[in-house]
Design brief:
Length: 205
């Protein structure tokens, strides 16, 4: 079993940080927009905060690709294969054969310089056992590849399960007293599962 517990949080924000993001505050430090020293159409208040925010995102991208590659860019529920064909310059064949693997080249290139790439834009990295119910977020075993259609179905099921879970465990979902103070670089190990939240929509980028 592989875990990424030492990696920074990616797209998994504290409840407080999620609130900041939703309210238009800097999601990294919580500074309100009127106090920003930069354009307010940015996500974060400063270059430093943006870097921290992006670092988290990049780690998530890496993490998600690992899961997709393990599942061969296919939905584990319905078997849908996310593939995209690309014609490349013959000179870049070597790149795609070697470094290109990082970007999901899963089939060989032919004489035509056509490569088949795994297309992550059609896939979702799904937590099998929802984080909101205490599921592990950084364990490969708890993340699976789903197509968008199957993810919709799964999300509906999850919402029902989570609602039931919250009814049965009211104390664990009362977050009003457990908001953590702003933290510049939250790590998976420094946060409890009850005050972190997964932002699923960013998953699809
Ligand atoms: Zn900030
Ligand atoms: Zn599917």
């Amino acid at each position: 079993m592989e875990t990424l517990s030492r990696m920074p949080i990616c797209r998994v924000l504290t409840k407080q940080q999620k609130k900041w993001l939703d309210s238009g505050y800097c999601p990294t430090c919580g500074l309100p927009k009127k106090e920003w020293g930069r354009r307010i159409d940015w996500t974060c208040c400063s270059k430093e905060c943006t870097e921290k925010y992006q670092e988290c995102f990049r780690v998530w991208q890496y993490w998600k690709l690992k899961v997709f590659r393990r599942d061969k860019y296919s939905c584990v529920k319905c078997g849908f294969k996310a593939r995209t064909e690309k014609i490349i310059h013959p000179e870049s064949k070597k790149y795609y054969r070697n470094e290109g693997k990082l970007f999901g080249v899963i089939l060989e290139d032919k004489e035509t310089a056509k490569v088949i790439l795994g297309d992550e834009s059609q896939l979702i990295g799904d937590h099998i056992f929802p984080i909101a119910m205490g599921g592990e977020e950084y364990e490969m075993d708890n993340v699976q590849t789903l197509c968008k259609k199957c993810n919709k179905i799964k999300t509906k099921e999850d919402i029902k399960k989570i609602a039931l879970y919250r009814k049965q465990h009211p104390s664990q979902t009362d977050l009003s007293n457990s908001i953590v103070p702003p933290s510049n670089s939250p790590t998976a190990s420094s946060l409890h599962s009850e005050n972190i939240i997964c932002i699923k929509e960013e998953n699809q980028k």
